[in-house]
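Hi support team,

I submitted a single chain yesterday and got back a structure, but I'm not sure I'm reading the token output correctly. Could someone confirm the output below corresponds to the sequence I sent? I've pasted both exactly as they appear in my results page.

Thanks,
R.
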Amino acid sequence: MGENLTLPVPETLYATYAVALTASIPDPGELAHDEIAARTEPPLRDLVLGMLGSPMVTLDQRPAAEFPPLPADLLAAYGASPAALTALDAATHILAVRAAYRPGRPPAHEWAARAIAGAVAAARTAPVIDVFTPQILAHDHLTRSLPGPDGAVRLTDWMLLPHTSGPHGFWFTTKGLARFGLPELQTENVPPALVVPWGRVLNGLARRVLDLWQDRLPAGEQPLVVDLPETVTVGLQDIAAAQGTDEPVRREAAVRLRLDTPDDPVLTVLPADDGPDRLESLCAALFGARDGRR
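Hi R., thanks for writing in. Yes, this is the structure output for that exact sequence:
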């Protein structure tokens, strides 16, 4: 068993958002510039406007029929209401907002593309689709997810945690870490009684792993690979940070990451210690014997 996991660093990361319009916009670039300037506070405003005037951002408006159809079943599974799906069906044009940026801090590709799509959508009362997830983003959710003056965001606004049941428990996977160049996390065979606490653990672990990853990607440098520790601690403070809150109690537990590469690489999350009831013991160590099972 090695002490580190070696992960490749993508050369460029991309973000794509779609704005579903009931009429074409004469000049999407001009509208985006004006709306960002009016609606967005610095320093995010300056970052987005700088990217908007560069090759890092493209705005592609076409009749809706010229784009591949949006996956209505997945959009519904990730929370889209029938009314929102009906609004998508009524769209005559789609504005695809795409941004590219290097891995590391800040994740400017995501911040810029989401901010631009949200500003244009607000001006046209149109829905925004996060193509990565895919998910329809309500305006208040989109606005809340963008960084404030200190650059802080809630990771849970950028990541989903779908889970499905199987014969031996639930399979969990994150859907959001790939935005930042990382493999997603997964855990298999989670007991039904641990669905809620294990979801909290994975949220906190995702925050912790993302911090480790971005700490190893300093501005101005582009390594080919990054080494992450195979054993990582996750604590109540990481869980709180993922949700944008503070936690004074510094209680932690260790997990082990295993890099699996069936098709797309994933990081399988395992308890650091072997033995029966390992997930139960880990949750109890973090949340207490009672809260660790609910």
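A quick pointer for reading it: The chain has a mean pLDDT of 94. Let us know if anything else looks off.

Best,
Support desk
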